[in-house]
């Protein structure tokens, strides 16, 4: 690639640097200027994490070729607090609790700053419109709206600057106080270094060769041509694993890289460490693989049928795990019931979509300790597994947590750290891997899709007397957290209700779909969605208010759970009371009475979104005759 | 265009910390020079604000201020095991272990100060960077107290472990004690459904959740708001799709996420039913926050238009199709009559 010289003003300082013509403004700022506050979230202009100002205009810098910034004035997140003090907007984000993982926050602060610059009196609804191009996965946006409103009011003098200060904790009582997040200044300023922001001397760049097939046998892998390339320092495959090759949260069924066969599209097959990213990418194209196609298995019901393709030899029935729960006698319960409802429910596969794609650095320290720095949610377990995989003593393997830019369960699996370890050992140099958004979406674990068959029996007074629940969860190609997910899904399936007769069966199965893994609420979201829908269907049938039917059945202190555990305290009634009171709920059976309700559109509601309606026209709209 | 409104409610419950197996977390604590504190534990901040929560707990237990606490976080070669960031366990497991470790460090300091002042250990108290003996005029800063303790040859350190005693499930009937702490919640959703386009807008969520004891109420709200919005994503728009195992939703242009324009106003009601087992009474909120949202929204859609969505997500095309089927069957009933 030819080089070019870029001259521009960045955060008030003139710069003159060599850039590569294919670089985006985002790459140039992060790599050549080492200003890593601006984040790369999607590389496609869809998430807004890379927002910055160019000649005063808010842009998504992943869409700007660096040549376009020639001679321009660029302002990044680092430019906002140039005096060493946070800007009013940054302080407002700190005060409002608007940053959680922090990865979207620099871009969000830039978009918020733009909103105020464009319209210093920006209204609450217009704020939402102006932040519409920036995705946050943690906060639910509410605290971000609060922050922008707070900054606006302080800048306009409607609130004193002290509104941004820490609230005093009464009598030094800090438990229960709204202490401002201690890590927020580092996040709102862009100073915090996530794994992808970190560099080490002599560091190599890693790329991963991934399977184009869902189910295929690897007849042979030839890496010789890739290894011979100038700039390539190491290539690894499963043949480089010295120890017992397998990881997973419950069953260690996944090799660091495909061993013998691939089980899903996107599975890692080989990894390359090279002097630069482009060389590593080119080397992937030089790896030759001979394939033998196998029949794919994509439907979880089909997985349970005899004769279905087998994903793992150790599980010829494709079953990861079955969890049974039995209490009382459901058939007797249904016989006592006045009303029996049956329904089927389905939930889909869902992506965690944390704004920080997977990234990590691996190196061998001077004492021979293999060290992995990554945004992992479970480094304790990763260390155990990697020590076995590398056949090393456990104190010679070290995991360091880097700031986690969102996890939600998706960063519990050790899906790339093993490759970093192998490459660091083989190359004797630090290695770094950063996933693209597409790589993150296509190859990492998802929320388990589920199919639930539900049968609930109730008496006319609203008591549930029997619940029979059968759920099949698609675990995809590897076990990951499936066993735990279907266990939690089973234990909580029948809801926080005292049901005397319960029969629950949850199944986790293997398929050749993208693996399913841990995801916030871990299998129970699927089953409780079904239970809470069933309760409303029953309430309509029985003419009961939906709060009432839940109160009638609510577990109370001293009751046994579905797994026959005695509960010492149960707060469900307090929660039902709290939600009912706060919402000003109008009592009545759920009989499609939306049109006649009188509790709608209260102060706890936002305005519905009507496209474009939030921008106030500054110039009166011309009359139609004038336009014509 | 017909815009219809409706409301729905749903409850939910959740177990705190690792399921059906013993859970544990440990911490080292030190009252440090200058009256500051050092707390080292294998905690993993994933955005929920656990570092601030732990600093608040340590500050209150030691008698210093949160910003004077340095948390040494997760590094398998530098911090004691506190295990993973998940299962809604960090405030419960690690929070309680931090409290216990800080109490031990504080006790070590108190013993030195009681001896130094010639008073009973039980008369000592500390708060906001000061330590004193109740019923006397002995009082000094934490900075001075740490200095006195060290000159007497004692570094005020402590360590602790917190255990949650869970049992596995029976293989036949599933009986067991999977958790020692449970939380509950309930949410009301209000929606507007456009019957022409099938679009659903969630306008309001009222979310009441038991957290045991809220260490940082604003942080709890943040977890509820974030959980609600993730659930709305799954309920209405998100769908990772594959064809023959290959994804057809490879980027955010195809995989649709909630933006600032999609989110409801969320009113949080924090319920505090203290955990009777742990020293702090805290429980957790990360995962349970999103459990009632989807069924509450689906129940609200039913309330608005009489259509029950049993297959997620409730996309506009599914709503329109369900309405069409409903109208057809209504017409069939009419013509049959």
List key phrases describing it.
heterodimer; A: 628 residues; alpha+beta; Ubiquitin-like (UB roll); 4 domains; five-stranded mixed β-sheet; globular; disordered C terminus; B: 337 residues; Aldehyde Oxidoreductase, domain 4; 2 domains; four-stranded mixed β-sheet; 13 strands; 31% helix
Summary of the model, kept short:
The complex is a heterodimer of chains A (628) and B (337). Chain A is an alpha+beta fold.
Could you characterize the architecture of this molecule?
The complex is a heterodimer of chains A (628) and B (337). Chain A has 628 residues and is an alpha+beta fold. Chain A folds into 4 domains: 1-41 and 50-73, Beta-grasp domain (Ubiquitin-like (UB roll), Roll), CATH 3.10.20.30; 81-169 and 183-193, [2Fe-2S]-binding domain (DNA polymerase, domain 1, Orthogonal Bundle), CATH 1.10.150.120; 204-294 and 355-406 and 411-438, Aldehyde Oxidoreductase, domain 3; 317-348 and 446-549, Aldehyde Oxidoreductase, domain 4, CATH 3.30.365.10. Chain A contains 19 helices and 20 strands. Chain A has helices at residues 25-32, 77-80, 88-96, 105-118, 124-130, 142-155, 184-188, 224-227, 277-284, 300-303, 330-336, 379-390, 417-427, 437-443, 482-491, 524-542, 546-553, 572-583, 624-627, and strands spanning 3-10, 13-20, 51-54, 57-60, 73-75, 204-210, 216-222, 232-236, 261-262, 268-274, 288-293, 319-327, 339-347, 359-364, 370-374, 397-401, 431-434, 450-458, 464-476, 502-510. In chain A, the strands form 4 sheets. Chain A has a 7-stranded mixed β-sheet, sandwiched between helices. In chain A, helix 15 links the parallel strand 19 (464-476) and strand 20. The radius of gyration of chain A is 28 Å and the shape is globular. Chain B is of the alpha+beta class and 337 residues long. Chain B has 2 domains: 3-16 and 179-333, 2-Layer Sandwich (Aldehyde Oxidoreductase, domain 4), CATH 3.30.365; 23-161, Aldehyde oxidase/xanthine dehydrogenase, molybdopterin binding domain (Aldehyde Oxidoreductase, domain 4, 2-Layer Sandwich). In chain B, helix 4 (217-237) crosses helix 5. Chain B has 6 helices and 13 strands. The longest helix of chain B has 28 residues, at 90-117. The model of chain B has no long low-confidence stretch (mean pLDDT 97). In chain B, the strands form 4 sheets. Chain B has a 4-stranded mixed β-sheet. Chain B has a 4-stranded mixed β-sheet with strand order 4-3-2-8. A 3-stranded antiparallel β-sheet of chain B has the order 5-6-7. The radius of gyration of chain B is 26 Å and the shape is elongated. Chains A and B meet through helix 5, helix 6, strand 12, strand 13 and helix 12 of A and strand 1, helix 1, strand 9, strand 10 and helix 4 of B.
């Amino acid at each position: 690639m030819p080089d070019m010289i870029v001259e521009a003003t960045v955060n008030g300082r003139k710069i003159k640097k060599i850039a590569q013509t294919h670089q985006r403004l985002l790459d140039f700022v992060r790599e050549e200027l080492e200003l890593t506050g601006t984040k790369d979230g999607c590389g496609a202009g869809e998430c807004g994490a890379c927002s910055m100002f160019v000649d005063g205009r808010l842009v998504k810098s992943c869409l700007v070729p660096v040549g376009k910034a020639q001679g321009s004035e660029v302002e990044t997140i680092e430019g906002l607090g140039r005096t060493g003090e946070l800007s009013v907007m940054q302080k407002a984000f700190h005060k409002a609790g608007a940053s959680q993982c922090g990865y979207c926050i620099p871009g969000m602060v830039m978009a918020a700053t733009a909103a105020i610059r464009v319209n210093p009196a920006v209204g609450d609804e217009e704020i939402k419109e102006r932040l519409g191009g920036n995705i946050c996965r943690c906060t639910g946006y509410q605290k971000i709206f609060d922050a922008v409103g707070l900054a606006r009011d302080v800048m306009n003098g409607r609130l004193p600057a002290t509104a941004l200060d820490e609230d005093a904790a009464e009598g030094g009582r800090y438990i229960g106080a709204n202490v401002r997040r201690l890590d927020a200044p580092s996040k709102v300023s862009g100073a915090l270094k996530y794994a992808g922001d970190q560099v080490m001397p002599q560091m190599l760049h890693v790329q991963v060769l991934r399977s184009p097939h869902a189910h295929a046998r690897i007849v042979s892998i030839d890496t010789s041509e890739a290894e011979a390339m100038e700039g390539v320092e190491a290539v690894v495959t499963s043949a480089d694993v010295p120890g017992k090759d397998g990881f997973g949260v419950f069953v260690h069924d996944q090799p660091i890289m495909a061993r013998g066969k691939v089980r899903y599209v996107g599975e890692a097959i080989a990894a390359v460490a090279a002097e630069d990213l482009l060389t590593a990418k080119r080397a992937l194209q030089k790896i030759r693989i001979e394939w033998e196609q196998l029949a794919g298995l994509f439907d979880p019901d089909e997985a349970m049928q005899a004769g279905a393709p087998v994903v793992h030899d150790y599980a010829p029935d494709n079953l990861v795990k079955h969890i049974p729960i039995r209490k009382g006698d459901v058939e007797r319960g249904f016989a006592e019931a006045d009303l029996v409802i049956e329904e089927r429910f389905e939930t889909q596969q869902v992506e965690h979509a944390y704004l920080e794609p997977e990234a990590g650095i691996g190196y061998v320290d001077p004492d021979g300790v293999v060290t992995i720095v990554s945004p992992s949610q479970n480094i304790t377990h990763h260390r155990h597994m990697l020590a076995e995989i590398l056949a090393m003593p456990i104190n010679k393997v070290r995991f360091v947590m880097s700031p986690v830019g969102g996890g939600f369960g998706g960063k519990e699996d050790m899906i790339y750290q093993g490759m970093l370890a192998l490459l660091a050992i083989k190359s004797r140099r630090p290695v770094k891997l950063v996933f693209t958004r597409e790589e993150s979406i296509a190859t990492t674990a998802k929320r388990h899709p589920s199919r639930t068959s539900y049968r609930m029996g109730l008496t006319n007074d609203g008591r549930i007397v029997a619940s029979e629940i059968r759920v099949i969860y698609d675990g995809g190609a590897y076990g990951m957290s499936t066993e735990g997910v279907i266990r939690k899904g089973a234990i909580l399936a029948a809801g926080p209700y005292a049901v005397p007769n319960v029969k629950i069966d949850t199944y986790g199965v293997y398929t050749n779909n993208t693996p399913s893994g841990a995801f916030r609420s871990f299998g129970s979201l699927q089953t409780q969605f079904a239970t809470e829908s069933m309760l409303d269907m029953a309430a309509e049938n029985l003419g009961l208010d939906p709060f009432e039917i839940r109160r009638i059945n609510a577990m109370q202190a001293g009751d046994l759970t579905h797994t026959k555990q005695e509960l010492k305290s149960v707060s469900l009634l307090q929660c039902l009371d709290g939600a009912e009171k706060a919402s000003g709920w109008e009592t009545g059976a759920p009989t499609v009475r939306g049109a006649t309700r009188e509790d709608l559109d209260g102060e706890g509601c936002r305005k519905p979104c009507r496209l474009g309606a939030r921008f106030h026209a500054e110039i009166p709209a011309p009359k139609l005759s004038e336009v014509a | 265009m017909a815009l219809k409104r409706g409301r729905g409610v749903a409850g939910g419950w959740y177990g705190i910390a690792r399921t059906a197996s013993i859970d544990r977390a440990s911490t080292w604590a030190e009252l440090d020079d200058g009256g500051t504190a050092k707390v080292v534990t294998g905690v993993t901040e994933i955005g929920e604000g656990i570092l601030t929560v732990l600093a608040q707990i340590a500050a209150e237990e030691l008698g210093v201020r949160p910003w004077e606490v340095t948390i040494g976080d997760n590094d398998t070669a530098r911090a004691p095991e506190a295990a993973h960031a998940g299962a809604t366990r960090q405030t419960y497991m690690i929070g309680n272990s931090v409290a216990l470790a800080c109490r031990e460090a504080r006790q070590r300091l108190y013993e030195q100060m009681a001896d130094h002042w010639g008073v009973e250990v039980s008369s000592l108290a500390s708060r906001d960077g000061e330590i004193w003996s109740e019923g006397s005029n002995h009082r000094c800063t934490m900075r001075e107290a740490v200095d006195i303790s060290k000159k007497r040859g004692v570094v005020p350190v402590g360590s602790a472990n917190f255990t949650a005693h869970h049992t596995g499930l029976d293989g036949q009937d599933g009986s067991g004690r999977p958790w020692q702490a449970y939380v509950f919640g309930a949410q009301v959703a209000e929606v507007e459904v456009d019957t022409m386009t099938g679009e659903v807008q969630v306008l309001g969520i009222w979310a009441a959740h038991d957290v045991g004891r809220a260490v940082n109420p604003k942080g709890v709200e943040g977890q509820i708001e974030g959980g609600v919005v993730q659930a709305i994503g799954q309920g209405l728009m998100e769908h990772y799709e594959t064809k023959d195992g290959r994804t057809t939703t490879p980027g955010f242009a195809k995989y649709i996420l909630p933006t600032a324009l999609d989110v409801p106003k969320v009113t949080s009601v924090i319920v505090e039913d203290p955990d009777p087992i742990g020293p702090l009474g805290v429980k957790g909120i990360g995962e349970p926050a999103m459990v009632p949202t989807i069924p509450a929204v689906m129940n609200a859609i039913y309330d608005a238009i009489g259509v029950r969505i049993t297959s997620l997500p409730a996309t506009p095309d599914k709503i329109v199709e369900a309405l069409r089927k409903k109208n057809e069957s209504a017409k069939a009933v009419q013509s049959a009559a």
